[in-house]
Amino acid sequence: MNLTEFDQAEIAAARDQNAPTRRATVPALEALLFTPVPVLDHGFVRVIDYMGDDAAVVQAARVSYGRGTRKVSEDEGLIRYLMRHRHSTPFEMCEIKFHVKLPIFVARQWIRHRTANVNEYSARYSVMDREFYIPAPEHLAAQSASNRQGRGDVLEGDEAAAVLALLREDADRNYSHYEYMLNEAEADPDRRGLARELARMNLTLNAYTQWYWKTDLHNLFHFLSLRADSHAQYEIRVYADAMLAMTRAWVPASCRAFEEYRLGAVSFSATMLAILRRMLAGEAVDQASSGLSKREWGEMMSVLHR
Amino acid sequence: MNLTEFDQAEIAAARDQNAPTRRATVPALEALLFTPVPVLDHGFVRVIDYMGDDAAVVQAARVSYGRGTRKVSEDEGLIRYLMRHRHSTPFEMCEIKFHVKLPIFVARQWIRHRTANVNEYSARYSVMDREFYIPAPEHLAAQSASNRQGRGDVLEGDEAAAVLALLREDADRNYSHYEYMLNEAEADPDRRGLARELARMNLTLNAYTQWYWKTDLHNLFHFLSLRADSHAQYEIRVYADAMLAMTRAWVPASCRAFEEYRLGAVSFSATMLAILRRMLAGEAVDQASSGLSKREWGEMMSVLHR
Amino acid sequence: MNLTEFDQAEIAAARDQNAPTRRATVPALEALLFTPVPVLDHGFVRVIDYMGDDAAVVQAARVSYGRGTRKVSEDEGLIRYLMRHRHSTPFEMCEIKFHVKLPIFVARQWIRHRTANVNEYSARYSVMDREFYIPAPEHLAAQSASNRQGRGDVLEGDEAAAVLALLREDADRNYSHYEYMLNEAEADPDRRGLARELARMNLTLNAYTQWYWKTDLHNLFHFLSLRADSHAQYEIRVYADAMLAMTRAWVPASCRAFEEYRLGAVSFSATMLAILRRMLAGEAVDQASSGLSKREWGEMMSVLHR
Amino acid sequence: MNLTEFDQAEIAAARDQNAPTRRATVPALEALLFTPVPVLDHGFVRVIDYMGDDAAVVQAARVSYGRGTRKVSEDEGLIRYLMRHRHSTPFEMCEIKFHVKLPIFVARQWIRHRTANVNEYSARYSVMDREFYIPAPEHLAAQSASNRQGRGDVLEGDEAAAVLALLREDADRNYSHYEYMLNEAEADPDRRGLARELARMNLTLNAYTQWYWKTDLHNLFHFLSLRADSHAQYEIRVYADAMLAMTRAWVPASCRAFEEYRLGAVSFSATMLAILRRMLAGEAVDQASSGLSKREWGEMMSVLHR
């Protein structure tokens, strides 16, 4: 992550702001505010605003219950109850806004989460920077033979070197041609310059873009449950992991409940539940007698005997 | 609006909170925070949290433009540009949370705005209060003869008195029976008491409920454009009017743009635009030669010659 | 459920329509189309339109895979895979529209599902019918002592009779006063009549309303998972049950997968999963050594030993 | 647009389907069903399913009015009334599903419309085709000097030739390297092949992708009002134009109302409205006395004197 002096001065200025407020504040998140956390080779994620805290979740839940139930000691228990029973609306009462710099192919996965507010850097209006994602050698994975959306072993030797060279050269050449077509910097007076909205089509999908991304805590948890998961592509998972750490600082009780009842939880189907009951009753069950396909049986066993 | 001593103490305590924050703060809105503004006979609306300010709208818009365009003096012009051209996403970067007490029939209209987060007082879990909306005499309107969703003149004399007496007696009697069926306060030990989730069905639609309602600035403007409008039912419009005043304190430049380009604006159809051009060219146009129906012609004339 | 002759003629006419289409059709759902299924004492639900079928789910999923994987024999397996791994977007490719008549207090729960399209009968424009929900004696439940949102035993004898009489008389009286205030039928020429949008506030929450409700299959499943569940209030669960039966006729393979992996599934938290592993390894675990609260331990045991 | 024999056979088979249905059908849209309409050099758009028609809009609106108002002759008037007064929910009762093939940079604009259901071809699972968008010479526009998101004159001569050559060569070379890195076709046994989810990052933003895109009529109109507009980028506008033509075949009355009250309409701000009134009263108003900025005055005059 390269920050220009300009960027650094702006972040320092934002962090120097200090105003009194009657709103809920979270000192642990205030400490992180505005500071970018590096992700991948040139990306980052940082929190730039937030609304609410664990107490706001509790407050919203208690609208339903009336006054009698307000006991501070029970707050975490209530939050766990809400998470366990998927009472999601109280978690919608908290809101957070991130500033993210990320490769375009990651942005294309991310944007599929529709319940969020987004403002992205526009390549229609502005000129993109010369920055591309090039995987670190240890993330240069082969196609998995068994799982079409998965990765296999890491490429090595000549193959790895060839791939890295191609990714670097192609992104760089295409960017140079993008600049040439634009004809903006050190412009050639004999050329008009191609419209930005057209020239951008020459860029590669590993070019970096950036956006503000704002969502409520319930939808953030949904995003994290899918993207901080081992099935998510590595290049988006590292963003989710960084955001999960920030969420822990922001709403620690809600986040503990999320990790207990969602991230770390497992769902057993009706058939699996019947198998579990047989097993706990002492019966020896194997795949043939389970009613599950080999694939599902394998999934179930790997969860139970991990 | 009756606030119990408990409520008053809680509001005072919330207003006494004062913590430093690095986030954007709006002193004019901080001054209003938590204080309920009375609406109708027992209702209120109050702001209990917010995120962002006019500068957050500008900041989001400028992600698209890159650094070169940042001039503070142009902020209001940019906000007006965004509003005029319906670039709505930067306004989604601000968020506000209200606590509202309102009659159930108003809540039923309000909830149709789907892009918001809501936690409502639950009559399944809790016992409702004995509070109903009874219109002030000057709002006791007759059915409009010309407009099926509109109101005509105000009822007077015996008819008004009879209506008010019925509304009051029916709401009150039904509430008493609700309490009786619940059998909770001063309970009769020989009765079990009806489930709350069932007993509530005896309440009238003017009973008061309350909720937290959280939305972003773009969707708030959409709500206000429909509900702070003369076509909206009076009983929801008074809430929208109170919220519009709060919005002016929060994001004054955005709100000015909203009043100029949305609330105070008029849309002319393709046919109306052709008529306007003929008129401005000096032609005398009447309904017969306009191509408009009598109704639309009337609407157009009333806008132009108000 | 009382259908007027007019209603019956209209339903018969709709069912008599028969046009050729190139779209996917589902004969089992066509057979049900337009026919109302009675729910509660005066309510109903009926399907009035639909788009797509099980094959549309498969088709959308296969956009991701390219041509090579198209084998009809694998369709149900693919649908089960999608449901198991919460790949929800292919289920959004099917759409269904219901016409529902339901008590207002049920409508108020239902409308909280925001991802749907709704057109409701408007008591601002139109006069409501004299129809109220009165529970059947076997559903006249007492408040549960242990669970504030639950129901206990059924009321009996004098108490039941008193409750039913109150519900009936109050709804009926309030409706009569509503009609009187409107002054529309057999109007008294000396009275103006109260505006409909005001008079309606005198109605009780068990008055029936009706709406068209349209949603996609993914969001329908979400609705059914919450409302066809034993924790849902009986009065909304009966609608969900009727809709689940219709969904089985419409998309049988998707519905089987939904019942296996969602409706009939159970989620175990991280802590519960650790307990399960200990149990399956032969260890005797009790609540004290489990790390669970008594409440959660009870929930877990009731699932495992049902 | 190149369709393989396989594609052509599949489309023909789909068009040969013919089943009876009780649902609303629209013969004019049935005639278009499944047939791709070419857009840009390799793209297309086609309707693959729909629900509802103009009568479904009317039916939903009339739920609000009760029976008395049903007169077939008034249907178009009612639709125009709904559109004029932005009563949008009845238009949500119709649904349509498109299959679209489009360049990735167009897809990135399009996906910002969040109220739609989408299933996109996955470059994580599947290998992309060697197809890129190369503008026709007459669309190879220079950057506008006056409007940063706009296009100026068309490039000519050597500059045009150079740009086209670069776009073609870069897209092609990057695709060849993508194939090489994948090592799937005519695979070199000594290389493992890079994971698809990584190799795709070498592709350019003019590569074609495809998706199913499903939305309701209200949100389709919103999409068309922004994308069939002269301010939209040409490369997305051509898709919107093709979809507008299909929408006319599907719901002709609704579409006429949309073109009259939305596409062809103009909004005048509060200040502009005051100016209009002065002008119509015979007053000579110029920019200096108008209260408008030069830019807004210019916009207003260009609308009035076009």
TrEMBL record, chains A, B, C, D:
Main function: Catalyzes the reductive methylation of 2'-deoxyuridine-5'-monophosphate (dUMP) to 2'-deoxythymidine-5'-monophosphate (dTMP) while utilizing 5,10-methylenetetrahydrofolate (mTHF) as the methyl donor, and NADPH and FADH(2) as the reductant.
Record: active site: R227
EC number(s) stated in the UniProt entry for this protein: 2.1.1.148
GO molecular-function terms, A-Z: flavin adenine dinucleotide binding; NADPH binding; thymidylate synthase (FAD) activity; thymidylate synthase activity
Listed name of the protein: Flavin-dependent thymidylate synthase
An individual GO BP term: dTTP biosynthetic process
UniProt keyword annotation of Manganese present: no
Pathway listed: Pyrimidine metabolism; dTTP biosynthesis
Organism in which the protein naturally occurs: Acidiphilium rubrum
Gene3D superfamilies per UniProt: 3.30.1360.170
Residues engaged in binding dUMP: Q109, W110, I111, R112, E120, Y121, S122, A123, R124, R200, R227
Pfam families reported for this sequence: Thy1
Signal peptide limits: none
